[in-house]
Design a protein that fits this description.
- Helices cover 39% and strands 14% of the residues.
- It has 15 helices and 13 strands.
């Protein structure tokens, strides 16, 4: 991958992109006439549309909803199939033998991926399961406070709200402004909510609503002199941007394999910093962190081995930093065009530090549900958040600039 820049040829690029447009069913008119209209492609991992061929997405489909569920590349699908077939040849011998050992080694891959240690990693089914494990394992008392936000995914707050309803814990939610927000304002709003009763701060790494990447490292610095656990929901960041739990200085980080990591469905992980592990008392941790132990019961080893294959797939593309560059570049490119649609109000922050691969708009004078339906009819898959009139676009490794041009062209025709 280091040779990509050296071998980059604009003429070949335009030729390959044109072929790629035909391959995914987009018209030539969707492609910009001037190559300079594109983002700086030399910062992008993708010099042509060939990466899309690694996925099984149906022809002509523009898939811009990785924030809900990511497609797995063929190599991951094949790995799961091959592992399942091998498992069925000798279920007991393989599940608690070589395949079980291989699946448990994925904990080490996740640890390397996050800059953690293997004995800080637990494999789960998803982010929600990880955060619920923490909520159930912390021995919070009535009157203890948990600070979170109004933008959290339901799965990221259900455990805390359970404690509020049944144990008298107080959940305080920060309502971040949907526009013109910057790092200083985020940090100020967090500081205002802190009190001597605050025991947990539970924040998403990347907002599922606006796409804002929270300044977690700076928030951790604020909490460093207080006895407050920092829990991070990484469902929308892991696989999209580089995550370094040591640099972020988080106590707990929960993630999913089936979104931006492009792994098998119903796979996830939980990072527990060594220094706080004795504060989590849960039956799910009673006999250790291994994939299979007495408190977990039988696991789907094929799925977790498939998650390891998804990490290898990302490594084969140059690693997560290259992928992050691509995702951020595409997001910037898309937002520059969405600004020109008068019916939309962009709510994704402008500050580079707060950017991610998610772009979100409020639909000001249109029906989100109706617009979402019409986009589906045009083979464009995005996310609608109907209760707040938000439409969310996810740009990932298999998406391209011409695909986004096609999206914007269709949007213009629909919101006239």
């Amino acid at each position: 991958m280091d040779n990509l820049k050296k071998d980059f040829d604009r003429r070949k690029f335009i030729k390959n992109i044109s072929l790629g447009i035909a391959g995914i069913g987009l018209s030539q008119s969707a492609f910009p006439k001037n190559i300079d209209d594109l983002v700086n492609l030399e910062t992008s991992i993708v010099p042509n549309s060939n990466i899309r061929s690694e996925f099984m997405l149906q022809p002509g489909l523009s898939y811009l909803n990785t924030g809900s569920l990511g497609p797995s590349p063929t190599t991951v699908f094949n790995k799961i199939f091959e592992t399942t077939k091998k498992l069925e040849l000798n279920p007991v011998g393989n599940n608690w033998g070589p395949l079980g050992k291989e699946a448990d080694m994925v904990r080490e891959q996740i640890a390397n991926y996050l800059n953690a240690d293997k004995d800080e990693i637990i494999l789960t089914r998803n982010t929600t399961e990880g955060i619920n494990l923490i909520a159930n394992g912390l021995k919070l008392k009535a009157g203890d406070e948990i600070i979170t936000t109004t933008d959290e995914h339901y799965g990221g707050v259900v455990g805390w709200e359970f404690l509020e309803r049944h144990h008298g814990v107080i959940v305080k939610k920060i309502d971040f402004p949907k526009e013109d927000i910057d790092t200083d304002q985020v940090l100020s709003l967090v500081k205002k909510q802190l009190s001597p009763k605050t025991k947990v701060c539970s924040f998403m790494d990347v907002s599922t609503v606006t796409g804002m990447r929270l300044p977690i490292e700076e928030i951790a610095a604020i909490l460093s002199t207080r006895d407050i656990l920092l829990v991070c929901d990484g469902a929308q960041s892991t696989g999209m941007v580089k995550v370094d739990v040591k640099k972020m200085n988080v106590d707990i980080f929960a993630g999913s394999g089936h979104k931006w990591m492009l792994g098998p469905k119903e796979t996830g992980f939980l990072y527990l910093r060594k220094g706080i592990q004795d504060r989590i008392e849960s039956v799910q941790l009673e006999t250790g962190f291994k994939l299979y132990n007495h408190n977990t019961g039988t696991r789907n080893v094929a799925n977790f081995i498939g998650l390891g294959e998804a990490i290898r797939f990302q490594d084969s593309l140059g690693g997560i930093k290259k992928i992050e560059q691509h995702n951020i570049a595409l997001g910037k490119y898309l937002r520059a065009q969405l600004k020109n649609i008068k019916s939309f109000k962009l709510i994704t922050p402008e500050e580079d530090q707060l950017l991610s691969g998610i772009s979100s708009v409020i639909v000001k004078d249109g029906n989100v549900k109706e617009l979402h339906t019409k986009l589906n009819e045009n083979n464009i898959v995005v996310k609608k958040l109907g209760k707040i009139d938000v439409m969310r676009f996810s740009t990932h490794i298999f998406n391209t600039e011409e695909e986004l041009n096609h999206l914007v062209k269709v949007l213009h025709s629909l919101v006239k």
